[in-house]
Amino acid sequence: xxxxxxxxxxxxxxxxxxxxxxxxxxxxxxxxxxxxxxxxxxxxxxxxxxxxxxxxxxxxxxxxxxxxxxxxxxxxxxxxxxxxxxxxxxxxxxxxxxxxxxxxxxxxxxxxxxxxxxxxxxxxxxxxxxxxxxxxxxxxxxxxxxxxxxxxxxxxxxxxxxxxxxxxxxxxxxxxxxxxxxxxxxxxxxxxxxxxxxxxxxxxxxxxxxxxxxxxxxxxxxxxxxxxxxxxxxxxxxxxxxxxxxxxxxxxxxxxxxxxxxxxxxxxxxxxxxxxxxxxxxxxxxxxxxxxxxxxxxxxxxxxxxxxxxxxxxx
Length: 315
Prior knowledge:
The protein contains 16 helices and no strands. The protein is mainly alpha-helical.
């Protein structure tokens, strides 16, 4: 007859304890079960964190929701009550504000001017920045490190410093007050950050991968388009999001370097303040119109943005 003896707590601790020399026992390690009080405390703490995050998100979205609902109310309703009353009176919602706004040729023209300014600027910054970043990361040429230091120094140059000199330069070139001048200005000031961001991302690519491509006969152009661009797509998409938002929401540069025919939406809304007066309904519709396109772009590229953050955290 075989008699089985139960392990005592001391024996279990001895089995799970590490052996001399740092080696661990090969047998299963017994884990102490959590008590009911510990599980309740953990659930309560997680619930509190989630509740705080929900409250913060609600307060963060209140101004945006208020702007949206205000844009769908008439001037009389906005003057007589707050935007929150529409939650109990949905009949107050109307598309009249947007119809009046889109029938204004100044607003519609400035909307297309914003697109004409933002899209080429984003493409130029991303394209030129990616090429320069690859050169700084993987190509050898005299003065490479000093040039990259100069790019980093340019990150600290305030935008306001170049307003007057570039205004004179664009005036001499005959492009002051045109869309071309605004595109060149945003491209010049967007390139330092683009080069810095993409260079650091490209430098993380394993060198063995590039050496294998060169052994197979690939030159720098082929390596850039076939290897760097696919691997750097998350960082490139993140840069495109930032540059698009900065250019779309810009008002200072556009206010100085554009005229009536080339002004973007931000300047057009500001110039219409006197005409519209205190008509918050029309102004809110214009503000939400200028905000909806960046939101669409952000959510469209959000997946790549998250991938870029995760890729940077794994290094």
